[in-house]
Amino acid sequence: MLDNYRAILAHPGAKAFAAAGLLARLPISMFNISVILMVQLQYDSYAMAGRVAAVGTLVWAAQTVPTARLVDRIGQRRAMIPLTLVFVLGAVGAIVTAMSQGPEWLLWLTVAVASIQGPLGSLTRARWSHLLHSDRDIHTAFSLEGALDEVLFVSGPALATILATLVWPPLGVVVCLAGLVVGMAILLAQTGTEPEPRAGGSAGSLGLRLPAAVIAVSLVSLGIGAMFGAFDISVVAFADEAGRQTLSGVVIAIVSAGSLLGGLYYGSRHWRAPLWKRTVVTALLMTVGFGLLALAPNVWWLAGLGLLAGLTIAPTLTNADTVVQRVVRRDQITEGMAWLRIGMGVGVAFGAWIAGGLIETSGSRAGLGMSAAGAGLALVLVLASAGVLRRSTERGDAEHLPDAPPPSEREEPVEQPPTPPHI
Prior knowledge:
This protein is mainly α. The chain is built from 17 helices and no strands.
């Protein structure tokens, strides 16, 4: 099962940038829940915590495409150094504001600044697309990235909860800050695997002309984001209502462990079923899983069902990433992936905001219902866009891209039917 992963990691520089990128992405798994916990503990309000987290996530979503275009145009090193400094300023400001119980608007401002992080989830994926050339290897690499993301989501929420509830409320934010700074320093030192800046780019460029399939999976990711945003804050409230708030991070970690296992298995196989069908199936299974989570009678059932529901997350996100990889040019892969993160970010923001209000008025069960509704929305959007996904991933769009080699020089895509054929 692991042979495919060993093969791609054997490429020069692959292990170094994969490990550094993992550390640099720590805020993806920890920052949102660290802010929720810090605000809730300091101000004793889930509604306020949801609002602050939502504002930060909306800013994060809004900055993703512009910063991704900047990375594609001028290169990862030149773009990410100043963006990392911006994150440091915002995170420090948020900590100072929360610990002095400053006004909510100042929390909005500082968390928003800290959310201008750049396209953290796309940097290593862009390096894989630059380094590898076959669809088979890229599928494996993206599955590995999805699995590594889940390593973060296994450890990050549990660590954030322990640090905030047992040590110091803003300590999770401090760890996010340290992880991003150290990881980015190591990643940006790996110049041998950094993609070249896009030739002919300019500050006024409109960037990627979005294919229909990218729009479709970005909308799907909006539903997935709503599921995530509502789930995080609802689990904290659910555990708090049971008198076990310190277990909230453990529950989230168990869900992510399921996703890690599902992602590793999914990426170790090369599937004969077409990509669009697999996208529908994994979205359906994810909806069923999170629907059952909303019915969990206690924390222990929530954890057990969460492990099963988590098995579906990484495969669903891997399918979305693979769609984008097939339908955009390789020199625009960072921006293509960024549109997925925009959908995800907007969904997380509204999921956290709505769930925070529902929890204040109706309890954590209503928040878990909101999470299940987000998964259901993702399924509806997948079904509505199934035709677009099928045409885009089976029609051979990638062969007509300016930087694609002629069909005679390309490997036959392992994920496609015999017909010649992009989170």
